[in-house]
Design a protein that fits this description.
By secondary structure, the protein is of the alpha/beta class. Helices cover 40% and strands 14% of the residues. Helix 2 packs across helix 4. The longest helix is centred in the N-terminal third of the chain and has 26 residues. The chain starts with a helix and ends in a 21-residue tail after the last helix. It comes from Artemisia annua (Sweet wormwood).
């Protein structure tokens, strides 16, 4: 490197330099680009700033990467992560050769800490991910400096499988609440991983056997759950999804060990069919001894209280939210010819795929200028394909298949109306994402859907083909009056993860104030679950308690290695 270039690097400093890089990257609008494109754009920014040249950004040739000190490079990545996003930072760090960064790291147990950078590396068999520790105080996993509590979240829908349960985990880092997630293994994803913003995920080695659910073991998960709770110094356990066997087992073990427990229900269930009767009894068992419960809508709360028999005053309503920085309208308003109706959902019976088979041909017959875009996959996709062939609608109905979450916004921005045909919904975050992108919504009037959007943003219909066709006709009539940008701003003011964070933190505080009770004091709650079921549940809890005590004798809590509290400014001495 030339002397003048070295002076420029040293003079500007990482914080000032990264602001210049940030401005270039922002100007080129490459936030959603792939990693190869991000690397190219970042290199372009460096060449503009450090080498004082301006290569062609559109060129497919990757510009040379300016030479600089490895530590400066890491600091730049550290600052860039705070100002831009995780994937750009990943491009920075993963492109460094190991020999370049070895002088700046120390090994701490199984983790590697980057000295002076606040960056650590998760070691696993899977590809390495890099994350940034919390700079505002607290431990490396995001615990508050006041040391209030750390949260363990057990969920079937977590990183690796998108769903409403996964969205609720994203806000925690913004409130500086330590979060550790446990879920089952997904394909080749197992072990411990560190996600963006420092979220730590345990992918326990249990593979799903049916509908993404693990085989119930009752007590097989006790050893690993106990180890994680002790090792991570968990104060509170938060479970998600009523049909997650792993969630129910983890909450049972947590109560046996004396932890405060919260459960969030994201679904609606009936009362008559065999499957619902079974799940309702399981939910009654789990909620018999939880500290608090959360539902995503008032309809969901009524459903949960009726199914579980839980006191209504212990159930709180906290709706989901949407990332309005990600889901926003297209810069330019789309032409009204043709009118595009977007459907994004799993193509299953519960999501109303059979309704779509009858509605789409009728709408296409009534409105020659209407097209449909259907994103999603499932067992009902075959029926939709047959419908398209039968009515010769190949040029008017596009079947996209499964749509990655990162591409949902681009699909939504290609349409004018979002169609939701679900037969049951507790909240339906999909219509919230569509409204944030400026789409007028047509939806079935089921579950908690009427609570999500104001009347002027949504047209509701009965789950009946003729009524849905009438609702789509009404939506097409009022479509010219819709301003996508105004709708986006209204959604931004109504829904935010910051608000979800504040309200959920209140529930956590109330749960932490609940008194601990012994096993004998808790057993009467299970007896209220039924004449025979109550006795069976008591037996299950007694056996769980005995097994836990045996584990305590075999490996006392003091012998479980705790996760080190590594602060970003803390220096680790070599052993």
């Amino acid at each position: 490197m030339k002397d003048s270039e070295q002076d420029t690097t040293a003079k500007s400093g990482p914080q000032e330099l990264v602001q210049q890089v940030f401005r270039v990257v922002k100007r080129e609008e490459v936030y959603m680009a792939g990693e190869n494109a991000l690397e190219r754009y970042v290199c372009v920014a460096y060449n503009q700033i450090l080498l004082n040249v301006k290569p062609n950004v559109v060129s497919k040739k990757v510009p040379p990467k300016p030479k600089m000190e490895a530590l400066t490079y890491l600091r730049l990545g550290d600052e860039l992560l705070k100002n831009v996003n995780f994937r750009i930072f990943k491009v920075f760090v993963t492109k460094l050769h190991v020999d370049q960064i070895r002088p700046y790291i120390w090994k701490v147990n199984d983790e590697i800490l980057f000295k002076d950078c606040g960056v650590y590396e998760a070691k696993s068999k899977a590809p390495t991910l890099f994350v940034l520790s919390d700079k505002k105080g607290g431990d490396a996993w995001g615990g508050t400096s006041e040391g209030k509590w750390r949260r363990g979240a057990w969920s079937r829908f977590t990183v690796g499988n998108e769903g409403e349960g996964s969205g609720g985990l994203r806000w925690s880092r913004s409130r500086h609440v330590g979060v550790v997630v446990m879920t089952h293994a997904y394909a080749n994803r197992s072990g411990v991983r560190y996600m963006t913003n420092g979220l730590k995920v345990y992918y326990v080695p249990w593979k799903p056997f049916l509908m993404q659910n693990t085989l119930p073991t009752f007590y097989g998960t006790l050893p690993i759950v106990r180890t994680i709770l002790i090792r991570e110094k968990i104060s509170l356990v938060h479970g998600h999804q009523a049909f997650s066997t792993l969630c129910h087992e983890a909450l049972m073990h947590a109560r046996t060990m004396g932890y405060k427990v919260i459960f969030t229900d994201h679904s609606l269930y009936g009362f008559a069919d065999v499957g619902s009767i079974h799940m309702n009894k399981v939910l009654q068992f789990t909620l018999a001894d939880v500290s608090q419960a959360i539902c995503v809508s008032h309809t969901s709360k009524e459903n949960t209280v009726l199914r579980s028999g839980m006191p209504p005053e212990k159930v709180y309503v906290i709706p989901n939210a949407v990332d309005t920085t990600m889901f926003k309208p297209a810069p330019e308003r789309l032409s009204m010819d043709p009118i595009v109706i977007v459907v994004i959902s799993r193509l299953v019976y519960r999501k109303g795929a059979d309704l779509l088979v009858e509605v789409i041909p009728e709408v296409c017959h009534l409105f020659p200028n209407v097209r449909f875009i259907i994103g999603g996959d499932g067992p009902k996709r075959v029926r939709l394909e047959e419908m398209r062939e039968k009515h010769s609608l190949q040029d008017r109905v596009d079947m996209l298949g499964a749509v990655p979450h990162a591409k949902v916004r681009s699909v939504l921005n290609s349409g004018h109306i979002f169609l939701n045909s679900s037969l049951t919904e507790a909240f339906c975050i999909a219509i919230l994402e569509a409204a944030s992108c400026g789409l007028l919504t047509v939806s079935t009037r089921v579950g908690g859907v009427p609570e999500v959007l104001p009347d002027d943003m949504i047209v509701l219909a009965k789950p009946d083909p003729s009524d849905m066709v009438h609702a789509i006709k009404e939506a097409i009539r009022i479509l010219p009056q819709i301003d996508p940008q105004e709708m986006h701003l209204r959604i931004k003011g109504m829904y935010s993860w910051q608000d979800v964070a504040k309200r959920t933190e209140i529930v956590y505080d109330r749960a932490m104030r609940c008194s601990n009770q012994t096993l004998l004091e808790r057993l009467p709650r299970y007896l209220t679950c039924g004449a025979w079921a109550g006795k069976l549940f008591c037996l299950v809890m007694i056996i769980d308690f005995i097994l836990w005590r045996l584990l305590q004798l075999w490996q006392p809590d003091s012998e479980v290695e705790l996760v080190p509290d590594i602060k970003p400014t803390q220096r680790i001495q070599r052993s």
